[in-house]
Records
---
Amino acid sequence: MQSPLAHAVLGALIDLNKPARIVHWHFFQMSVANIVVIAVMIFVLVLAIVLPFPARRRVSR
Amino acid sequence: MSETAGEPRMWTTRVREAAVGALPPEKLLPDEQPVYVASWIYVFGVLTIAALIVVVVSGVVLGLEGPSWWHTTSIGLFFNSIHLWSVELFFFVMVVHLWGKFFMGAWRGGRARTWVSGAVVFLIAIATAFTGYLSQQNFDAQWIATQGKDGLNAVGIGSFFNTLDFGQMYTFHVILLPVAVVLLAVWHVLLVRNRGVVPPYPARRLAAEPVPPEPSPPEAAR
């Protein structure tokens, strides 16, 4: 059995033991969790484009 | 055995020559890439492959040990989580890869088959993940199966693809769809090797301009 402290450390940062929160606006309906994941994907895409690539590499042309 | 003129060549010879002609070793395993490849956006394809390898290996372990193992033992739960989160990561980096390739028009320069094969892999991967949810052997799987059957029946494929038939869903998940994903992914990578990485739009325009005198020092990757 895990101690309450271990539960607090190892458990989810957000309480997932309840119904998901849903954003519903006209035809649009999506869980907040999915919206967050899509936002993070867009953020990572932008970072991948704007951040400089660190290593120098041999180039062929 | 050496061949003489006029003697019909063996099919193995023809296959070998066609394979080496389409993908010579320097194309199959290149040691240099164009300067524009030095960007983080070009990393997400190989991240997708890396995640797929973890997905397949952890899935094989789960399949060998069985549901009672992955639901009740600590190491089974660990591998269950590895399988889940590697799939999450697989889709995350695959979507970023897809967006990046869409905005750089990765179908240009005779790369239509590369683009289409990647899109097909994406769609089959969604079906693979869906059948994975149905193969968990828990209440979550039962809930998804009973909800999903109505949608699939509504489009008329319920008799061929029955979410309530665990054996059928499990076969789709562990054999048919993963084999399709892996084979198409391999073909996708070979097409990338054959045609090369798509250049970004500005580099393509610059390539059409006259080459200036020798720059000093040469512009290298950052």
Note: The domain at 106-197 of chain B is CATH 1.20.810.10 (Cytochrome Bc1 Complex; Chain C).
---
Amino acid sequence: MRRGLLTLLALLGGSAPGWAQGQVFAVTGSPTNVRVTVDEVVARLMTFDQNTDGRVAIGELSERMRPLVARGDTNGDEALDPMEIHQLAHAPVTRTNGVFGSSGGYSFGDDVGLSSRRHIEGALEDLRLTADKTDRAIPIVRSYVEHIENTARASLLSRMERLLSLEQFVTFSRLLDGQQHQMTFRANVPDGERVVRVMAMAGIGNLTRRLEAMALPAPHNEQARAALEEYKTRVRLGSEAERSELMARLTDVLDDEELENYNAALQRRPVVASASGMAVQLNDSIRALRERTGAVIPAVLIERAPVDVISR
Amino acid sequence: MDLIRGVFAFFLTGWVLALGLSSGEWGPSEWVSKVHAQGTPSAAVGASGAPDKARPTERTLRLPATPYQYADVTLPPHFMTTAARRFDNTPPDNPVTDAGATLGRVLFYDTRLSANNTVSCASCHVQANGFADPNGVSRGFAGGHTDRHAMNLVNLRFHPRARFFWDERAGNLEEMTLLPIENSLEMGRTLDELPEALGRDPRYGELFRDAFGDPRITPQRIGRALAQFLRSMLSYQSRYDVGRAAARSAAEDFPNYTLQENRGKALFMRNCAVCHLENQEAHFVVNTPVNTGLDEDTRTTDGGVGDITLKPADMGLFKSPSLRNVEVTGPYMHDGRFATLEAVLEHYSSGGKNHPNRDIRVQPLHFTASEKAALIGFLKTLTDHAFLADPKFSDPFQ
């Protein structure tokens, strides 16, 4: 039934436009903190120093890299020494980006609190099962999603209850319960007016920040963070035992190849992209949603589909 | 059904038009041009190792009496959405014209753009291969090998950042087209000598006058004409395009696909589109350069964009070509390391190597054998046979 839906998650407050199918747009940029360092850049450039005189002469560089010397040679010796390379690596680069800017950042869906429901149900959809098989498999998968979301939530709240004060716990629970809201409205999108469903999300990042703001004592803070991490993992895919049970229940419906493909698809971690321009168009609706729910809403999930499908 | 019929009628019309143009290709104006045959650059290396001027072989330039239509092309609706049109990098001062692209076509196939008359742009960018090089790395005019694979030239008009080469060092197509001519390994010409070399042929005066209003030959005009020709190379008649026009969205099953191809498309949309089909449904380009985890070492492997900017975050990032016609554009990646699509999928299935700048989107996907087959089935639907054989993009020298 959901086949053909186009999905977006738009970030509030940014600038890049986004409108595509089969992908979601989220809050954060790249979550990875591991990056090449300036020292590594210097080390890379110095590998071109063939005569080992401690500097890279213009003739030692490949032709495409020679403009670097014009940019970075401060002492006029037509070569780059490590200090000059270091300065180049820190200098801002003036480049034209053409007529259309770059994409925003990306993150894992579970890191921003995106429900796995779409991923788990979508992976089943991707198998292109017969109608009969789909009708039998969908209820199994949906009950699985509800089960893992409920048990993950119950487990998290149970652990948090022991770590937070009553006031903190109430705040945290409200934030968790208010994590996802939905509404349907009409919006102007780049290729015409469409009815879209918006799912607003508080996001795990928000929960983490709220926990940090609570300034729990060290042992409690560590336990709370661990509980949140476990919640993220469980709500994403369930535990191994839960997944095994799901696959066992599906054995009666899917053949071996379908089971193998579904199991592989479940293991994948959905990536979401920021595309905040959409939020500009949605601001009014988001504001209304925010007022109605009282939730902090850093991102919205938009499901786009032809009107006759989404309006049902 | 009416919609499907309409779509097929649209593409059928395109074929009829193409055939009609082909039948009238050879006009009265023929020009014998002394140009060395392509494909033998190493033979032009003298005993000293220095490139010799090759002995010219007579080739005849044949152009249609009425120029091909390059400027006025009717693209399918999914190319015309607001989002898709935003990818168009055509500059206001160099729109594609029939005369400009015709000149660009002649230049593209003219070996006189190389120092010893042995190689043209088309030596490394072969039409039957989606204008990519079927070899892993390309050979220059003197027989030397470059260190990168010549990427495809498909739908360059729709690369939104308008930056070109694997390391994005060229800021627009006009600039990009001149750099290989000047490169000492690739074509070995100086731009200053090029107007005189081409000006010896009177037909070029005519072509430049038709394109730019007067017969003056300048490096800038050469770059602009080549850029026009490249921007005119549009692939939009694949089975994907037919299917997309018959469906309400790219995510919906296409009526002209097999079950396996639709499964492959669904897998692509869920796992690959976040890079290759972002923000639109037409172009199959990656909007920004990406580190796909091809190498782990940051010191000795090709730094890509980072070697140009020296920004740490750019190290190991490479531009990605369009996936259109990907079936025939192998070998793949900037150094042609993967010979087959299966090998490419295996790379993404494994998640690549652990480079510090590896993009978050490149993660282990663990595709099963059946999923790989479905994905490859889908990717092959991006092949546009009309484009690969279109005479208006073919070698005009006979």
Note: DSSP finds 15 helices and two strands in chain B.
